[in-house]
């Protein structure tokens, strides 16, 4: 009965480097979301997957950010040429995606620090 | 998608007291959900209230919804130190996307 897991829990990188953040949703959940949260703010929507496809990537801040979900389960958020402003907690959530609006189950997040 | 705005931004109470926080939104909704977040990590779903409901209870939580005023309130009764967290509302207009506000930061003092 595992929940949503995210790895790593913390990631420190240098400006300009490439990072990958992983999300393992609850088994069977077809909907998957990525959010970014800065200190003192609410989670900011980045991208939504329904199955393998990105149904809405309008929240991705720029083309340095990309996310995949090739088999409709695990998702990876990829950030190229990281900048200090990318430092935040990156949250992943999944929901059953039955077509009825469901609660979202959140992972513990990955805290990304760009030095 | 629309954003819920929580009020107050911060609330500090003594253990055992009740805590009330409010949420306002702009357009009609199908339902509204409340989430809690501890220590800046993952959010936990607390309760969902549908647009045709006016009040809902879950343990020490009581949620009301006034669609005419486009507002909801979350009441936590007999608060405990463990209730210290940030609370967010998520109004659902029928899309999959939540736009979270800045939340209400609740501090319960022992």
Question: Layout of SSEs?
Answer:
The complex is a heterodimer of chains A (115) and B (110).
Chain A: E1 5-7, E2 10-13, E3 19-24, E4 31-37, E5 44-50, E6 53-56, E7 65-68, E8 75-79, E9 88-95, E10 105-106, E11 110-114
Parallel strand pairs in A: 2-11
Antiparallel strand pairs in A: 1-3, 3-8, 4-5, 4-9, 5-6, 7-8, 9-10, 9-11
Chain B: E1 5-7, E2 10-14, E3 19-24, E4 31-37, E5 43-50, E6 55-58, E7 61-66, E8 71-76, E9 85-92, E10 104-109
Parallel strand pairs in B: 2-10
Antiparallel strand pairs in B: 1-3, 3-8, 4-5, 4-9, 6-7, 7-8, 9-10
What is the gist of this entry?
The complex is a heterodimer of chains A (115) and B (110). Chain A is mostly beta strands. In chain A, 0% of the residues lie in helices and 48% in strands.
Label this structure with key terms:
heterodimer; A: 115 residues; mainly beta; Immunoglobulin-like; seven-stranded mixed sheet; four-stranded antiparallel sheet; B: 110 residues; five-stranded antiparallel sheet; five-stranded mixed sheet
In CATH terms, the superfamily of chain B is: Immunoglobulins
Mean pLDDT of chain B: 92
User: How would you name the oligomeric state of the polypeptide chains in this document?
Assistant: heterodimer
How many domains in all of chain A?
1
Low-confidence stretches of chain B: none
Task: Report the biggest beta sheet of chain A as strand number plus sense, adding barrel if it closes.
Answer: 7 strands, mixed
Radius of gyration of chain A: 13 Å
Number of strands of chain A: 11
CATH class (first level) name of chain B: Mainly Beta
CA-based gyration radius of chain B: 13 Å
Compressed to H and E, one letter per element, the order of chain A equals: EEEEEEEEEEE
CATH superfamily placement of chain A: Immunoglobulins
Range of helix content of chain B: under 10%
Silhouette of chain B: globular
């Amino acid at each position: 009965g595992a929940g949503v897991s995210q790895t790593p829990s913390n990631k420190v990188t240098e400006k300009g480097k490439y990072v990958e953040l992983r999300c393992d949703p609850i088994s069977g959940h077809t909907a998957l979301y990525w959010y970014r949260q800065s200190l003192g703010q609410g989670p900011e929507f980045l991208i939504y997957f329904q199955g393998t496809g990105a149904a809405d990537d309008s929240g991705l801040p720029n083309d340095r950010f990309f996310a995949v979900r090739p088999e409709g389960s695990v998702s990876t958020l990829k950030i190229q040429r990281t900048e200090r402003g990318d430092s935040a907690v990156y949250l992943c959530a999944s929901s059953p995606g039955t077509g009825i609006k469901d609660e979202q189950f959140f992972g513990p997040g990955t805290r990304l620090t760009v030095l | 998608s629309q954003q819920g705005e929580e009020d107050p931004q911060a609330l500090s109470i003594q253990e055992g007291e009740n805590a009330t926080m409010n949420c306002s939104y702009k357009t009609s909704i199908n339902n509204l959900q409340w989430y809690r977040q501890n220590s800046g990590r993952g959010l936990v779903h607390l309760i969902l209230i549908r647009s045709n409901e006016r009040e809902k209870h879950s343990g020490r939580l009581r949620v009301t919804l006034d669609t005419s005023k486009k507002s909801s309130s979350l009441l936590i009764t007999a608060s405990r130190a463990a209730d210290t967290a940030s609370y967010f509302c998520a109004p659902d207009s029928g899309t999959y996307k939540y736009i979270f506000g800045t939340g209400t930061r609740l501090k319960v003092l022992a």
